[in-house]
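Follow-up to my earlier ticket, as requested here are the two runs.
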Amino acid sequence: MTTLRPAPPAPTLGAHTFVSMLARDVRVLRRELFTFLSRTLMQPLFFVFVFAYVMPRIGGGDGAGFGRVAGVSFATVLVPGMLSTTMFISGLMAVTVPLMMELSYNNEIEDRLLAPVPVWALGLAKITSGAVQALVGAIVVFPVVYFVHDSAEPPQIDLGNWPLLLVVVISSSVLSAGLGLLMGTMLDIRKSNVLFSLVTVPLTMLGCVYYPWAALQNTQWLQIAVLLNPLVYSSEGLRASLTSSMPHMPTWAFLLVLIGGTAGVVWLALRSFTRKVQH
């Protein structure tokens, strides 16, 4: 006689379960806090020190030439640019590298698949964790890029437009983590060097980090081409909310991409993640 067993309950996404999954990433971050801080701070610290402190003192100008035209110091240009690239790299790496390792030889992702939640919720937890690390990176780097400069050329920062700043920072963090999840499902760990050479370096160099988007108006083809770079909209959004006196991309333009693009990237990333782990 065949005994009928009740079907296992369908996975549901509860707040307690979701927080528990995030707690694991928080513990890992606390254990590797020194590595995270050193990786996050090194590049912005040395870049700002050389171009905003050393160069003006040795007569090298403001480092970009644009500052003299706009009437602001190069330190002012660097603050939003360094914040945007820190959030982008922190959120991207926080998701992509661990995910590629979990999907590699040891296939650690199977342990997480045992959680009583939908598969897409695991991907959402990774995006949330990466976004939090991107936010932490921005908070840690802000004092560095704000206080390290030549005393004669301080950055001109205005925090009055904090609602716009909040929208830009949150959407940029989620966008970077979403891109990290999407790339983590597409790249093999043996080809992770591609992430550094073909993705992060071109994105940061052409992401309006060290110059405003408006400064490219004399090179119109490049000004149009960099619009494919998601980092441009984060940099310009922070520039508009922190240094509104500088020329920047129209507010509606970068908000449209940051909010709409973030929603689209997260959807694609969760779909790609679900297909990858269920394959």
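Run two:
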Amino acid sequence: MLALADPELDNGPRTDRSATMRMCAVTREVRPIDELIRFVVAPSGEVIPDLKRKLPGRGLWLSASHHAVAEAVRRHQFRKGFKRDVHVAPTLAADTEALLVRFAIEALAMAAKAGQVISGFGKVEDALRLRQAEALIHASDGAADGIRKLDAIVRQNAGINDESNQFPVVAALTSEQLDLALGRSNVIHAALLAGPASKTFLSRSHILVRYRMADDDRTAGHVAKNSPTQTVRTRTNKQD
């Protein structure tokens, strides 16, 4: 339940374990915690994102949106919310996105170590056709032709007009970032196999995409609602 006496702040991760909804300090909207990011004050007095919601101390919650975090910085919302002098980096919105990217890369690396990731166009294509894959990953800077071919297999498997069978397609990381996660070079396409580590990567990539796209669809929490693709792609001439 929300703490009605001070709706902007929680009482710490240990005391508010049962909370499933919190209020965004910028929009004043109450949202599920999966659509928000918790911020705390470090011992140094610096405001930092608590992406795992485990850091000690009271937490202030913001919509998982680059714009919301930037607005909180501009409005001095952290000083108002925490009711004390705090240090807020002017680059906090960009720093938060960079941390979300790092968390996604780390989760994908863990999934790979657990044997839940395959990469390479041919292997990914086979996994999709055999319905072994739980999700499809494209490099955000991958060539359009390979992306179209694999996406076509996803649509054939799921049914173009069947929204209930939407298949996760993640294009939140660049080829360089996929290389870093998977420990090989020139990764353009990958697929996730079933397993808890894969679920963790999907969860982290989803919040990264929400952070980048929430302002575009004006909901700050319902990203790519009508598409199986979780992010906007930018393309170069990379080939697999």
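The only thing I checked on run two: Residues 92-113 form the longest helix (22 residues). Let me know what else you need.
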